[in-house]
Write a structure and sequence with these properties.
Number of strands: 21
Organism: Sulfitobacter sabulilitoris
Radius of gyration: 33 Å
Number of domains: 4
Protein name: FtsX-like permease family protein
GO cellular component, one term: plasma membrane
Structural class: alpha+beta
Main location: membrane
Number of helices: 26
InterPro entries: ABC3_permease_C (IPR003838), Membrane_comp_ABC_pdt (IPR038766)
Shape: elongated
Largest sheet: 6 strands, mixed, barrel
């Protein structure tokens, strides 16, 4: 059997042009383009973060400490290593204007800097001036700069004064650009910049206050960052330092971009799967139209393999063309839209043509084309020559030969494996693949059920000839009910699942959470202030509940004498510092799941009560030892018990609780939550902030609003990916409607001959499209709700309730989409002359 001969036949077949393959090419190109565009934008952001790593970080390297300033030995090492050293103190506090009942307060993220800040880049101020001049102050008060959103919230203007703690400040300028802002990650309040020296009398940096210090290093040009990191960690072992350098200047942003990009690529794969349905339908329709050609070849002695190779090569060439179009669109579109994208991004991006994401998209496209075209190609090979002259493909076997099934399975495994490898999110990839496979199986079964129900629906259509015609057409093999339900249904399923997940997450955060969450978090309460603080709240009838606990921050450095990450992996508990508290007795609302609480007045070796769920995820057992670095001091304790910790209520929850003697002598403050009536919240804040200006109040509703803003961006990005999937499904729907034009033309001719009017035939076509769209929408709704429940329940661990507005819009969308596609191809069959159609049919 000659490949050259098959190639010759394939080349001659392609001379007929792209007729019949426009939908094929569109589906493949759109799916590849979506994945290529997402990958290109992610690569541009990663390149921007890498290129501007030092600027984002504010230096070539950064050493961060929690709750403390660097020791003299640490400062000496940094001074000897760096050309220039800059110290930054970062914490939250309240900015206050006015006095008494007329005072206005706003949560702000304070950055206290020295004269060397910023090492890299410039601070943008309005009116224009240097940062040194702005922070010098006026009228005997130190200067400050503040973001406009907080200035407006407090009703300030440049030249006004405000307080941080007990210290007054002069507002010298509006902060318009913070060169190292992206490295700080998510913040609950707008930024205010002051000098560290000006906070000396503010009472905001007292022992135990929640703050972190960051030391930025300007290094020699030939500095080896990896070697310096290793030296710092070895020199100051278990000091609790965290190292970041210009190789990844904004690690939180980079991780977020990677995860979001991986998720969007997986959404794009869903769109490619929808396109695969269209590709398969297009190949099947094309081969059905090649009945006479294939029959002639078989009659002349062509073997099955030669026919398969001929059309495999032809479809392969067209697949390469579709993939090339998709790569061109996906690579060029981000370049053309770069100004718009950059304007929306808070971080730098370097837009260019990146080979890696384009290659990834091409591989996905090739595997998808292979998997979805192999089935119809293989079935065509099995059809005997005598049956090829009439209804070729429907007369073959239901399944292709086992070798082809094995090849299809191998292609699917490769597709899922490469998706997991490229995205790095194996769990999410498997969930996505399982969801797509489950949805396809559900939709395929539903299409069979729809055809069966249509055949049995005659009892409901008695006396309704138009409905009877519609049901008869749906139940027939030529209407393409399977293609409509599979393509449109899968696209709608993805959109429905995204809508349900997004709606439930928003509802959990902004709907249900305020009902169970506290009104305020108060932090940095000094031990000497606790009595007066508690007395004020306990005597207020509007206060329902007060929870308070001592608060320290510590870094888990070792588990059972080994580096913590070797045991617990990349678990979130081990990423950065965590809250640590102590308690003498077991709190009333705490339930132990294993082990025992320490006895009263226990003063033996340190003991730990650990959160049960997180302990299970990290593989911890009773009796394991954990080393926590608190203020540069290592404390090693033994796990004595596990307990339930519920973080879903936004109340106080600590992963680690220790016996009081274990933390004796460590300076610390207290954290407290207050549950009060909403109309009493303002007065509570005025009283406590007026009496204790060092206390920071975080209003939970404001925090929820900040999270909701982030969710808006995530939902928009995800919706764009789902919309691309739906657009692909609509293209497949158009292809199915186009492929059925011939059958509908013959049907209309027969009905006209029997006396049916054009109006009746049009109504029948409309009913047919609406019923198919309704069925596709209902099945997609079921699949989407099921997928949304699974993600909400197992991945996000939130309650789930059907978001009916989103659900009903999915059903309506299915009906509208099929109506538009069906009616677009209905006019030709309706206007055709019966005599010409029936004579041609003979």
């Amino acid at each position: 059997m000659s490949i050259a001969l098959a190639a010759t036949f394939a080349r001659r077949e392609l001379r007929g042009g792209l007729k019949g393959f426009r939908i094929f090419l569109s589906c493949l190109a759109l799916g590849v383009a979506a994945i290529a565009a997402v990958g290109s934008v992610r690569a541009a952001i990663e390149a921007g973060l890498s290129r501007e790593g030092a600027a984002l970080l504010g230096g070539d390297a950064e050493l961060e400490f929690t709750y403390r300033f660097a020791t003299q030995a640490e400062r000496d090492w940094m001074t000897d290593t760096a050309l220039t050293l800059s110290e930054v103190v970062d914490f939250r506090s309240m900015a206050v204007t006015g006095t008494g009942d007329t005072a206005e307060r706003g949560l702000t993220q304070i950055k206290a800097v020295d004269e060397a800040y910023p090492l890299i880049g410039t601070v943008g101020l309005e009116p224009q001036m240097t940062l040194d001049a702005a922070l010098a102050g006026q009228d005997g008060l130190p200067g400050a700069v503040m973001e406009r959103v907080l200035v407006d919230r407090l009703g300030l203007a440049v030249g006004d004064t405000f307080k941080l703690g007990t210290q007054g400040f002069y507002l010298s300028a509006i902060l318009t650009r913070e060169p190292d802002g992206a490295a700080g990650g998510f913040a609950l309040g707008p930024r205010t910049i002051v000098t560290t020296d000006s906070l000396e009398n503010s009472s905001l940096l007292a022992p135990g206050t929640l703050y972190s210090t960051k030391y930025r290093l300007d290094l020699p040009q030939d500095a080896d960052l990896a070697a310096l990191e290793a030296e710092a960690r070895a020199t100051f072992t278990d000091s609790g330092l965290r190292w970041t350098d210009a190789r990844n200047g904004a690690p939180g942003v980079a991780e977020f971009v990677n995860r979001l990009g991986a998720f969007l690529v997986l959404v794009g794969l869903s769109g490619l799967a929808v396109g695969g349905v269209g590709v398969s339908a297009a190949v099947r329709a094309y081969l059905a139209g090649k009945t006479s050609v294939i029959a002639t070849l078989r009659t002349l002695g062509a073997e099955r393999g030669l026919i398969f190779q001929t059309y495999f090569l032809q479809i392969g060439a067209l697949s390469l063309l579709g993939i090339a179009i998709g790569l061109l669109l996906g690579g060029v579109a981000p370049l053309l839209l770069a100004p718009l994208i950059e304007a929306r991004l808070p971080i730098p991006a370097a837009f260019a043509l990146y080979p890696a994401p384009l290659a990834e998209a091409a591989i996905y496209g090739l595997l998808t084309a292979f998997v979805f075209t192999l089935w119809p190609l293989a079935r065509a090979e099995e059809v005997r020559a005598a049956t090829l002259f009439r209804d070729a493909l429907s007369g073959g076997k239901a399944l292709p030969a086992p070798r082809y099934l094995a090849m299809i399975a191998a292609g699917l495994v490769a597709l899922v494996g490469l998706a997991g490898l490229f995205s790095g999110a194996w769990r999410l990839t498997l969930w996505t693949a399982g969801g797509i496979a489950g949805a396809l199986l559900l939709l395929a079964a539903s299409s069979l059920l729809i055809r069966f129900a249509s055949r049995r629906g005659g009892v409901f259509s008695r006396g309704r000839p138009r409905l009877r015609w519609a049901l008869a057409a749906i139940s027939g093999p030529r209407e393409g009910a399977a293609s409509v339900v599979l393509s449109l249904g899968l696209g709608l399923s993805v959109l429905a699942a995204v809508g349900q997940i997004d709606g439930n997450l928003r509802q959990a955060i902004s709907g249900n959470l305020p009902d169970v969450a506290p009104s305020y978090f108060f932090v940095d309460i000094q031990q000497s202030q606790m009595a007066g603080y508690t007395e004020r709240l306990e005597n207020d009838p509007a206060v329902r509940r007060i929870d308070s606990a001592p608060m320290l921050r510590g870094v888990v450095t070792q588990i059972n004498g080994r580096p913590a990450r070797e045991v617990g992996g990349d678990h979130w508990v081990l990423q950065g510092d965590r809250g640590v508290t102590y308690a003498e007795a077991l709190p009333d609302d705490t339930r132990l799941t294993a082990g025992d609480w320490w006895p009263a007045n226990y003063d033996g070796p340190p003991l730990i009560s650990f959160a049960a769920e997180e302990a299970g995820e990290m593989g911890l057992d009773l009796g394991d030892t954990i080393t926590i670095n608190v203020l540069g001091r290592d404390i090693t304790g033994t796990i004595a018990s596990f307990r339930d910790v519920d973080f879903s209520t936004a109340g106080i929850g600590f992963i680690l609780t220790m016996n009081p003697a274990a933390l004796q002598g460590a300076p610390h403050s207290f954290i407290s939550t207050v549950y009060a009536e909403e109309d009493a919240e303002a007065q509570i804040l005025r009283d406590l902030a007026g009496q204790y200006p060092n206390i920071t109040a975080i209003r939970v509703r404001d925090a929820i609003d900040r999270v909701a803003e982030v969710l808006n961006g995530l939902a928009a990005a995800t919706s764009y990916g789902a919309a691309a999937t739906l657009l692909t499904g609509f293209l497949v729907l158009i292809g199915a409607a186009s492929a059925g034009t011939s059958a509908r033309t013959y049907e209309a001719a027969v009905l006209k001959t029997l006396g049916a009017t054009r109006r009746s035939i049009l109504i029948s076509f409309t009913l047919r499209a609406a019923l198919l769209g309704l069925c596709a929408g209902l099945v997609a709704l079921g699949a989407g709700i099921l997928g949304g429940w699974a993600v909400s329940h197992y991945v996000m661990e939130t309650d789930f309730a059907v978001i009916w507005p989103s659900a009903l819009s999915i059903v309506a969308g299915g009906v509208v989409a099929t109506l538009l596609a069906g009616l677009a191809f209905a006019w030709g069959p309706i206007n055709a002359r019966p005599a010409q159609v029936l004579r041609a049919r003979e």
